[in-house]
Design brief:
308 residues, 8-stranded mixed beta sheet, globular
Length: 308
């Protein structure tokens, strides 16, 4: 079973770059390519694809059946030499899976349902055709179907026999199940699935962007000028919104409990700051080291007990 990581945040928070950093780390660790399922542009990963470090499957509306295709991909099927999806005949030949775009893929599946005017307990709203093309609005049942489908695909990915599964998503607004309180978290479609995603993954990281003030000197008149530059922090602990303290963003590490304080000593604020050179790879390395330290300690404990 894979160790899962979910990274969510607004556009421009270097999520695809984080996948590139993770690809370098995992390829160095296993010397096996990574598989990328994406519904987004993925431009920072293109050099890794051309270098053979990452294998890519682009899931968009040009794919005839995106719903069944996604299901097969998340169960471990991949295009064979003939370009057809096929299950592996042995162990999966990959170090891990990247699923880029939980949110955009949800939107893709919803659009596909509308394009095909599919009925799911409710008829599509306002169905009509024009010049041979079908149009409609999604019914509430379509949203629920897509939400449940994406949650099931996360379960499929987590069950794969690989080291890591890393999923990215955009930030979304949702409702807490039961109380219907407003919450923030990884977005699907609609607002009723957001609070369920985190329960299906191990590590969850929120990418928060903010503006950093820097003082520079005007070379002409020597005046001090305040310049604001966008920065990003990756939180692995739950934290409040910068402007609305009563709203919080879910996040969690999955290190062994006895190693939690070691993790917090490395990043006391509960976050790390990614750069163009490193970020998520460093976190994965620390996570692996802390997990390995616990295993070593338990092996030593077992050996000591067995002597008695």
């Amino acid at each position: 079973m894979a160790k899962t990581v979910l990274l969510y945040g607004d556009s421009g928070t270097f999520k695809t770059t984080a996948l590139a950093h993770a690809a370098r780390y995992l390829y160095r660790k296993h010397k096996k390519p990574l598989r990328l399922i994406t519904s987004e542009e993925s431009q920072p990963l293109q050099p890794y694809v051309e270098a053979g470090i990452v294998e890519i499957f682009r899931l968009d509306l040009s794919v005839d059946n995106p719903l069944s295709t996604l299901t097969k991909l998340c169960r471990g099927e991949w295009p064979n030499s003939a370009g057809k999806l096929a299950p592996a005949t042995g162990p999966l030949p990959t170090a891990g899976y990247f699923f880029e775009g939980l949110t955009s893929c949800s939107e893709l599946l919803l659009q596909d349902l509308c394009n095909k005017q599919r009925k799911i307990s409710q008829d599509p709203i306002g169905s009509f055709s024009e010049d041979g093309e079908k149009f409609c609005a999604a019914a509430p049942s379509h949203y629920g179907f897509v939400q449940n489908t994406m949650l099931a695909r996360i379960k499929n990915l987590a069950a794969l026999d690989v080291d890591r599964v890393i999923i990215t998503a955009h930030e979304g607004k949702g409702e807490e199940e039961g109380s219907r309180n407003a919450i923030r978290g990884p977005g699907l479609v609609g607002n009723k699935g957001t609070d369920k995603v985190g329960k299906l993954v191990g590590t969850m990281i929120h990418a928060e962007d903010y503006m950093e003030e820097m003082i520079t000197i005007d070379p002409k008149n020597k005046d001090r000028i305040a310049v604001y530059r966008p920065k990003v922090r990756y939180f692995f602990v739950k934290h409040p919104d910068q402007k609305f303290p009563n709203v919080s963003y879910p996040a969690k590490p999955r290190v062994p409990p006895e190693r939690y304080e070691e993790l917090m000593k490395i990043w006391p604020g509960g976050f790390f700051t990614p750069t163009l050179e490193e970020g998520l790879d460093t976190y994965l390395e620390v996570d692996d080291r802390l997990f390995g330290g616990t295993v070593d300690a338990l092996i030593a404990f077992k050996a000591e007990v067995d002597k008695i």
